[in-house]
From TrEMBL:
CDD domains: ABC_6TM_Tm288_like (cd18547). This is ABC transporter ATP-binding protein. It is found in: Cell membrane. One of its GO terms (molecular function) is ATP hydrolysis activity. It holds the Pfam family ABC_tran. It comes from Chitinophaga silvatica. The keyword Amino-acid biosynthesis does not apply. The lineage of its organism: Bacteria, Pseudomonadati, Bacteroidota, Chitinophagia, Chitinophagales.
Length: 587
């Protein structure tokens, strides 16, 4: 499956504004009560504001013209009271929506993070961490801004406009239509331009992601950059990404600001129309001054929010572009689904069996071609072959980091796809080529993913470590279990990292232990120690060892040669050596 989020195939799935917004609202259904309260407050606010021009018009025609000061004071008091309540409703909804926005941000970030964690390794192969971070941090924040600041203003402005429109039409139908005509032009203009504006914002968010990916890549590889003196190269790449972001941000800014001048112009035209026609109607005796004032007031109530809407609509486009990028992740499903359990009569006693397995990475050539393989319990297997021959890929299929493109992998006679993740990882321990350590202590790192000893005290754990013959390895670290590990294992040598990863895997007592170049950075004395520990593992533990160092594999029961899509028995170590030499010469 193609998991590349920045690939063109995903663009076809982009939702319209309406569908995107509907999907987004589904995510915040639990905020229904607060949204309704805020909605009520904003409607009340709009209604109170709308009563203003009518009261002013009434005051002019009935109290000012007729010099009724008592009525004027009363009317003014009502007006002040109304504006005070309107102020309170505005404060109330702002506070409420601020909280809704923050909670939405929280929910969204959790939803994306949890989804990312469910996705298979292929997803991480195809996407840059920086871009994913930008989606989790930056794009969700765009939505938060929309929710906490813009949504209710948006609804309030719309409600105000609809109310003002009703007043305009009901006060004088023809004049109302003339006043509202520029709004029709605005609507058409907005509909035509919105997809373009959203696209500009989507491109901008993509370049923010690319910039973030660039930063992440250079920070993650700073040692290589310094060692190879590639600062200039990375500076150039960063400048390019930064420049791209600058260009797209500028054009998104222009796109976002295109509404405002046009809306303002239409608004001024509408007010001019009211004035001209209103003055004409007064001279004809069909209108009063108060009515023209009210008309101007309502035209203002109709067109002022429109100006605000111009900015809000741009915010909405940014938020929807962000939401598209977020939904791209939320809509992904892992293709490593768990299928129903179906016992397969084992063709053999094998712990792991490959039946006609084919595999290729997305958009790549086939790496494994029709492989049939049996790994028996308790035996040690070595996978050897030239660089890039497919050893790690074979091991990854055994551990179900990927599924075969064809054929099936069986674990204890059962399709490996029918095991839950927990069952499978309990049975298989995989020590990767580049072990990753988490910030914490060695204890936390060796217990990573190990439920059995999660709450064990240091003393209890030390006993388990002794029983597993690992105490000599732990002794390499001065502060034992409490040795601090920082920033992914910085400050710890690669060999030491491999020892911690080794202890982590052995302590889980798996049925199958895969060591992928797991001792490549360990001195020969310590390697001998690891070999002894491996020998003392339960007799039923199957071991798969991938190694270039031949002394590591000399005790294997069976050696497999992996190259050019094939996994074949190499027979003796000597034979394997010759095959590797041949394979290397060919490639
Ligand atoms: N994530 C990936 N996406 C695409 N192609 C990949 C990926 N990982 C490996 N490959 C390709 O698959 C082939 C086999 O790679 P693999 O890592 O299995 O080889 P290997 O025998 O373990 O090599 P080495 O001895 O260098 O570790 C190589 O051509 C490699 O470029």
């Amino acid at each position: 499956m193609n998991y590349n989020l920045n690939n063109n195939i995903n663009k076809g799935q982009r939702a319209s504004n309406y569908t995107a917004f509907k999907n987004l609202l589904q995510l915040i259904t639990h905020e229904k009560k607060n949204l309704l309260l805020a909605f009520g407050a904003i409607l009340l606010n709009a209604l109170l504001n709308l009563m203003g021009p009518l009261l002013v018009s009434y005051a002019v025609d009935h109290f000012i013209v007729k010099k009724n000061y008592h009525g004027l004071i009363l009317c003014t008091s009502v007006l002040i009271g109304m504006y005070l309540i309107a102020l309170f409703t505005s404060y109330f909804q702002t506070k409420l929506m601020g909280r809704v926005g923050q909670r939405t941000l929280f929910t969204l970030r959790n939803a994306i993070f949890f989804k990312i964690q469910q996705l298979p390794v292929a997803f991480f192969n195809q996407n840059k961490a920086g871009d994913l971070i930008s989606r989790v941090n930056n794009d969700t924040d765009k939505l938060n801004q929309f929710f906490s600041q813009a949504l209710m203003q948006f609804i309030g402005s719309l409600a105000g406009m609809i109310g003002a429109g009703i007043f305009l039409i009901s006060l004088n139908f023809k004049m109302g239509l003339v006043t509202l005509f520029p709004a029709l032009i605005i609507l058409i203009f907005t509909r035509i331009l919105s997809p373009w504006v959203k696209r500009k914002n989507a491109i901008n968010l993509k370049t923010v992601g690319a910039l973030s990916a660039e930063i992440q890549e250079s920070l993650g590889n700073f040692k290589a950059i310094v060692a190879f003196n590639r600062r200039d190269y990375f500076r150039k790449r960063f400048s390019e990404a930064n420049n791209n972001n600058y260009q797209t941000a500028t054009s998104a800014g222009i796109a976002n600001n295109i509404y405002l001048p046009f809306y303002s112009m239409c608004s001024s035209i509408a007010q001019l129309l009211v004035l001209v026609i209103g003055v004409y109607l007064i001279t004809q005796g069909e209108f009063t001054i108060g009515l023209v004032l009210a008309y101007l007031g309502y035209a203002n109530y109709f067109y002022s929010p429109l100006r605000q809407l111009a900015t809000l609509w741009a915010n909405f486009q940014v938020a929807m572009a962000g939401w598209d990028r977020i939904s791209e992740i939320l809509n992904l499903e892992s293709d490593l689904e768990i299928i129903p359990k179906k016992e397969v009569t084992p063709a053999s006693t094998a712990l792991v069996e490959f039946r006609n397995v084919h595999f290729g990475y997305p958009e790549g050539k086939e790496i494994l071609h029709n492989i049939n393989l049996n790994l028996e319990p308790g035996k040690t297997y070595a996978l050897v072959g030239p660089t890039g021959g497919g050893k790690t890929t074979t091991a990854s299929l055994i551990a179900r980091l990927y599924d075969p493109t064809q054929g099936v992998v069986l674990l204890s006679g059962r399709d490996i796809r029918s095991y839950s993740n927990e069952e499978r990882t309990n049975k298989i321990g995989f020590i990767l080529q580049e072990p990753f350590l988490f910030t914490g202590t060695i204890k936390e790192n060796i217990l990573y993913g190990n439920i059995a000893y999660q709450n064990a005290s240091n003393e209890e754990l030390l006993n388990v470590i002794k029983a597993s013959n690992l105490e000599k390895l732990l002794a390499i670290f001065e502060q034992g279990l409490d040795t601090k590990v920082v920033g992914g294992g910085e400050g710890i040598s690669l060999g030491q990292k491999q020892i911690i990863a080794f202890m982590r895997a052995v302590l889980r007592k798996p049925d199958l232990l895969i060591l992928d170049e797991a001792t490549a950075n360990i001195d020969t004395v310590t390697e001998q120690l690891l070999e002894e520990i491996l020998q003392k593992l339960p007799t039923t533990t199957t071991k798969v060892i991938i190694a270039h160092r031949l002394n590591t594999i000399e005790n294997a029961d069976e050696i497999y040669f992996v190259n050019s899509g094939e996994v074949v028995k190499a027979g003796s170590l000597q034979n394997a050596m010759e095959k590797i030499m041949e394979g290397s010469r060919e490639s």
